[in-house]
Amino acid sequence: MELNKENIIVLRKEYGDAFYLLDSKQFRKNYTELKQTFSNIYSNFNIAYSYKTNYTPKLCKIVNELGGYAEVVSEMEAELAMRIGVKNDKIIWNGPIKNKENLKKFLLAGGTVNIDSIDEGKYIYELSKQYGNSVFNVGIRCNYDVKDGVISRFGFDIEGKEFFEVLNLIKKRDNLNLINLQCHFAKRQLEYWPEKAKGMLDLIDELKIVPQRIDLGGGLFGKMDDSLKEQFTSDIPDYQDYAEAVATLFAKRFPDKENQPELIIEPGSALVGDCMKFVGTVKTIKKVRGKIFATVLGSQNNISMTGVNPPIEIINMSNDQKEYTNLDFVGFTCIESDAIYKNYNGQLAVDDALVISNCGSYSLVMKPPFILPNFAVLDISEDRVEVIKRPENFDDIFHTFEF
Ligand SMILES: Cc1ncc(COP(=O)(O)O)c(C=O)c1O
User: Fold this and answer.
1) Is residue 314 one of the residues assigned to a domain?
2) 20 to 30 A Cα–Cα from 41, which one of 76, 86, 258, 328?
3) Does the beta carbon of 266 sit less than 6 angstroms from any atom of ligand 1?
4) How many alpha carbons fall within 13 Å on the CB side of residue 161?
5) Which domain holds residue 242?
6) Contact assessment for residue 303 and residue 339, using Cβ atoms and an 8 Å cutoff
7) Is the CB of 143 under 6 A from ligand 1?
8) Would the CB of 94 count as within 6 Å of ligand 1?
9) Is the beta carbon of 389 within 6 A of some atom in ligand 1?
10) Which CATH number belongs to the domain containing residue 179 in this structure?
């Protein structure tokens, strides 16, 4: 279904003057394309979708249906995966802190836990003694220098004492299955990807261990409009670039297709970034000491994109637009810095729809209940309106408070 004036009138009437539009069709397309691109170079490849990036159940279900893993970082996300029917052996639990009781249940059920600290490693070791008849699938989150200038706080320094300590704990117990070695480095530039892969390949050579899965984490750019690309100082790689940067190294290291460990990546933004739009409404246009502001029902908090002008489209809903220069679109909050788009030049009128693209990642999941409850999420990609999330109301925010 195309987004135009007529459709916006209908949607506004039903769901209010601001809403998200989810494009599940595009998400499916991205998943299939990313999977194929890497698999063309290295066949034993799979995707673990980073739930935190956008845990909309419909998206998580698509990943499950297409055979991907659920990459979760909390008991809440682990529960979500289970509730939508992901089998335990398809759930990978990362993250720095895990609730002990949930962790135990999860391991007993056959999920994979990537150990992040020695304390966690010791806890799991003790559990494995307590539950001698159960096999626990564990991984180790590995931390090394990928020349990105960051000292990551996650996982084990692979040159440190605690890394070998946790490895020895795992080796000591037959029922601790080291299924996975994992890493994740947040910077998305292409140059760090061969470093990620080399770090892992060198490590397995040094340890003389080839686990069932080697997981390079997330940190890939997604697809985006040229107007957004231009605002980055580095080039924006595509799926093929990332695949060539790492899958080629794996294919070279494991030429025997029968004995390839599974290569996994954990994309969030690369799959979902371009799969959501936010549609807000221009409520007022005013001039303050020479500067023009259009206040929108919508906020920086809805899109979580700071420091850039997102790709926008204005849909005229009335006929009395005027030409403006250097107009800032600002949000409904009382925060001075709540600017959605700066220095817009063009036509605009009150009641126009402001359509913001590329807001699928870290948007919905990071919207605080600040000043207003959140808006509806609708999927119109399949030629009908599907309510993915109804608009939040007063009670959604206040029912956990005592009055
Ligand atoms: C462990 C892990 N995997 C995957 C991701 C997804 O990252 P991205 O959205 O950059 O692909 C993150 C993001 O922080 C992460 O911490």
Assistant:
1) yes
2) 86
3) yes
4) 0
5) 25-271
6) no
7) no
8) yes
9) no
10) 3.20.20.10
Nearest ligand 1 atom, CA 188: 10
Residues 217 and 151 in one domain: yes
pLDDT at 27: 98
Q: Are residues 255 and 308 in the same domain?
A: no
Task: Report residue 27: phi and psi, to 5°.
Answer: -60, -45
CATH number at residue 326: 2.40.37.10
Count of positions (residues) in the chain: 403
To which residue do tokens 């259009």 refer? 294
Cβ of 196 below 6 Å from ligand 1: no
CA 392 – CA 290 distance, rounded (Å): 37
How far is ligand 1, taken at its centre, from the CA of residue 267, in Å? 6
User: Where a domain ends, among 271, 290, 314?
Assistant: 271
Nearest CA residue ID for atom 16, ligand 1 = 184
Choose one of 271, 292, 311: the last residue of a domain: 271
Question: Are 217 and 352 contained in the same domain?
Answer: no
d(CA 237, CA 224): 11
**Nearest residue CA, atom 7 of ligand 1?**
218
- CA-nearest residue, atom 10 of ligand 1: 219
Residue 3 CA to ligand 1 centre (angstroms): 31
Mutational test site, ligand 1, from 50, 153, 272, max ligand atoms within 8 Å of CB:
50
Which pLDDT does position 137 carry in this prediction? 98
pTM more than 0.70? yes
Domain count, the chain: 2
- At 356, the amino acid letter reads I
Contact 246, 185 (CB under 8 A): no
Same domain, 250 and 299: no
Does 403 map to a domain?
Answer: no
Statement to judge: residues 248 and 375 lie in one domain: no
Judge if the beta carbon of residue 220 lies within 6 A of ligand 1: yes
pLDDT at 303: 95
Closest ligand 1 atom to 217 CA? 3
Tokens 């709540």 sit at which residue? Answer: 338
Residue (of 303, 374, 310, 384) closest to 344 by Cα position: 310
pLDDT at site 1: 80
Mean pLDDT, each 10-residue run in order, the chain (403 residues): 94 98 98 98 98 98 98 97 98 96 97 98 98 98 96 96 98 98 97 98 97 98 95 96 98 95 98 98 97 98 93 94 98 96 98 97 96 97 95 97 97
Q: Is the same domain home to 214 and 286?
A: no
CA 385, CA 285: separation in Å to the nearest integer? 31
